[in-house]
Amino acid sequence: MNEDIFKKLIAHSKEYGFIFPSSEIYDGLGAVYDYGQMGAELKNNIKRYWWDAMVRLNENIVGIDSAIFMHPRIWEASGHVGAFNDPLIDNKDSKKRYRADVLVEDHIAKIEEKIEKEVEKARKRFGESFDEAQFRTTNPRVLENTQKIEEIRHKLADVMNANDLEAFRQLIIDLDIVCPISGSRNWTDVRQFNLMFSTQMGSVSEDANVIYLRPETAQGIFVNYLNVQKTGRMKLPFGIAQIGKAFRNEIVARQFIFRMREFEQMEMQFFIRPGSEMQWYEHWKQFRLKWHKALGLGDRKYRFHDHDKLAHYANAAADIEFEFPFGFKELEGIHSRTDFDLSSHEKFSGKKLRYFDPETNESYVPYVVETSIGVDRMVLAVLSTAYEEEKITKEDGSVDERVVMRIPPALAPIKMAVMPLIKKDGLPEKAREIMNELKFDFMCQYDEKDSIGKRYRRQDAIGTPFCVTIDHQTLEDNMVTIRYRDTMEQERVPISSLRGIMEEKVSMRNLLTQLM
Question: Subunit composition (predicted)?
Fold first, then answer.
């Protein structure tokens, strides 16, 4: 998908009620978005899929919902007050500000594009006999560019691990990176910027305490770890899951809902015995990848990226990257957090956060493996993959076009549209009868406005998998026409079979059973 199509997707998302710019009647608020009626349904379906996969399928994982406001000492203990920074750099000519690491990553992405172009040219040249794996390991240009990427990643990791801001600027200069706006190399120094929003809590501003909007949901899990363990009589290994809002004062927020200042996370912290962390780290990497692939967005759209620079709390970290319209970017992170968080909270709070292991007869601070995914990025992954402009050849040879959102049926905002062919002769009444029967189990939409063709196009545009049309024959034989979004095929089925068809095609169960 190119930039032009991505712009069309953003416009489509607004036109059909998926995502609106926030506060739009006041000219908007930068990098903040509202979810419309379709977007809210899609988002809720994604959250339900995640929650059921983590909490319902795993007997040793439970869910909580912690507060957004937390004691300010928590963020000192977690390292966010001192170390939650982004390296920023300005271009003096365009006056635009960038994240220094993103500039380097975008440079790497351009080299990766060169590799992919070489691969595609070879694929076209050799056809079915093309061996992609062999080509990637033997072609001189591919090998040269792969080597360049490895060297740049190594240098990037070095400067970030050393927090060497001067070397960071020099790396950008050495790579000959130009400002995307001005095209110049006139860069300022790199400096750090803390990403947390602060506010005040208290009845009188002079007496108020400075507190922070949480930049992640994980700390709400850690400070409740002992509460959950004791009240739930949990034994290691066990996990705590949470879905909730988080806030980061992103200076360089961009790419629609990919990077926002207010966003939603789905996080699970898995508490384990020290020494078993790498086994569980690999387990959750594979389980989470399976969760993504079950949606059918395309297996080739996912890849693992192991971190060269580890966060202060981690001894292993990897991203599941997804091929967004603007390239492969992080969709989910899996981290082995060691015992950093619980040990730090023990130290700062003065409260023991130990686990007594009945098998070893000892008390210790558990290690943690984390899975963390952005709900909004997941929405963008689904929408960008689903959007398609399709040409249709009619029976008379003319060509028509439609925009169709091929959203996985289990995630689709509307599962079925119920449509009387015309607004008279008892057809609306029969359609309402069907609607009232199915709406208790499935999100359905009743539509009687415009021609049946226009109504089909409207449902295609919001990703509705099935449309059911009630005609005059229905009143005689209790049969309806069901039309399938992806193929546009139609067939007559008994009204009594609609529930079974829906349960088979749109049930979340179909996704969840693939994970067992």
Answer: Homodimer.
Q: Would you say 344 is a known binding-site residue?
A: no
The answer to whether 263 is a known ligand-binding residue is yes
- The per-residue pLDDT of the chain, averaged, comes to 91
Q: Tell whether 261 is in a known binding site.
A: yes
The verdict on whether residue 374 carries a ligand-binding annotation is: yes
Domains and CATH numbers, the chain: 1-68+196-406 (3.30.930.10), 85-194 (3.30.40.230), 414-513 (3.40.50.800)
- 268 annotated binding-site participant: no
Rounded CA gap, 271 and 339, in Å? 9
Cα separation, 360 vs 349, in Å, equals 27
- Report the pLDDT averaged over residues 286-292: 97
User: Could you give the 3-state DSSP secondary structure of residue 83?
Assistant: helix
Percent of the chain residues past pLDDT 70, beyond the cut: 97
Split at pLDDT 50, 70, 90, the class of 80 is confident
373 is in an annotated binding site: yes
Buried b (16+ CB within 10 A) or exposed e, 349-373: eeeebebeeeeeeeeebbbbbbbbb
Q: Is 265 annotated as a binding residue?
A: yes
Q: What's the CA gap between 297 and 408, in Å, rounded?
A: 8
Coil vs helix vs strand at 410: coil
| CA distances in angstroms from 48 to 57, 242, 516, listed in the order given | 12, 12, 17
372 is in an annotated binding site: yes
Annotated binding residue 15: no
Single pTM value for the model: 0.84
Is 153 assigned a ligand-binding role in the annotation? no
Q: Is 385 annotated as a binding-site member?
A: no
